Amino acid sequence: MSRPPAVVHVWDVAAEPRPRFFQAPGVQSAVRNLGDAVGLTHMGLHLRRIEPGHAGTHRHYHLVEEEWVYVLSGWGHLRIGAHRVAVGPGSFAGFPAGPRPHHFLADGDEPLVLLEGGERRPREDEGVYVDLGKRWRAREFSDVEGPLPMQAGDVSQVISIEQLEPREFQHAVDPDAGRLMRRLDRPTGLQRQAVVWSHTEHRRSTAFHTHTRTDEWVLILAGRARLRLGDDHCVLAPFDLVGHPAGSAPHLMQPLEPLTYLMGGERDAEDVVLYPEAGTQLVGGRLVPL
After folding, report:
1. Nearest to 66 by CA among 34, 33, 102
2. Fewest CB atoms less than 10 Å from the CB: which of 40, 59, 151, 269?
3. Which DSSP category does 166 fall into?
4. HSE of 54 in the Cβ direction (CA atoms, 13 Å)?
5. What are 87-108's pLDDT values in tens digits?
6. Would you say 206 and 229 are in contact if contact means Cβ atoms under 8 Å apart?
7. pLDDT, tens digit, for every residue of 35-65?
8. Its pTM surpasses 0.70
């Protein structure tokens, strides 16, 4: 069974050395651009591997874009503002826009592997590499002039999935669709990005649907599932990623065994969710006929 272009195994995506613009001792990682590989247009999604003894990025913050990071494997620390927080598998950090300088350090005995995501607003975005004295605005770099704003950052921006009680989700459109969910975005202050840990034993992941304005993605953590994507079908296994750009083919997953996955997307009040087989759509929080 062939795979549609929207499905990749994350470790098959070519890695690029980072940083790209400003080299510095102790800052080094390898990054796989997953978002481009699966056709996402509104969001960035990357896999970053940091070898022990290195930081993954320069300390930085964005003034426009939201960011988030989920730790897939390894142990290390997150520096955020004045805080240094231990992280490991299942740790999640949300970075709302604002002067919260941060980066991850792989100071354990094994590589630190991160799933990173955020908005794609490069022509609007601006931010600062605080230790380099460099500012970017709309993809152009310059030296920082004058004092920087006081650094913020709070340990509440970092959580573990084990801190969150899973809640039952039953789909309103499909009675055989549902899952256990842990919302990761809201507790960490994100306003426009959505990231959810999900698990289902036998029920479909969702009703057959697509979004008109927002990107979605799914990363399999454990188990296998049969993906239905428009007229295509294929089997998903751990570390398979599926991208659902806005307006793309409707989709759902049927677990073949207990299935755990991360899913994410965007919050947009003007988004419409289409359920073509049910003959309905979700508009402004209300189900109405197509």
Report:
1. 102
2. 269
3. -
4. 22
5. 999 999 999 999 999 999 999 9
6. no
7. 999 999 999 999 999 999 999 999 999 999 9
8. yes
